[in-house]
Amino acid sequence: QAAAGGGPLRLFDIQSKKKLREQPMAAPLEFWSFVKGGDPAQSVLTLATPAALFLWDVSLAAAATPPAKVCPRLPRSEVRECELSPGGSRVLLISMYIEDAERQE
């Protein structure tokens, strides 16, 4: 389970009740999910802040490294899903653009 509470992002193993990783975040987290695809041995999280999208390898075998920035986010976009290619060299980001309510009237 991943939880964000206004500062650090903490990753816990619920079964063993142990904290696995902790990472300070400069911006609030708006979206997170486990990435689909990629290397089956990896556990990668998609992290979306208001300004950017990050990937964070949280595999137990991986070194404790900070999330890697993948790309900036477009204003008024809502992240829905993120997938990795089998080699992990490409990222597919699925998001929705939120229209300005004032323009629709």
Automatic annotation (TrEMBL):
InterPro entries given for it?
Clathrin_H-chain_N
GO cellular component term of the entry, any? clathrin coat of coated pit
Q: Which GO BP annotation is one of this protein's? A: intracellular protein transport
Q: Where is the signal peptide?
A: none
SUPFAM superfamilies hit by this protein: Clathrin heavy-chain terminal domain
In its UniProt record, a GO molecular function of this protein is: structural molecule activity
Protein origin, superkingdom: Eukaryota
**Designated name of the protein:** Uncharacterized protein
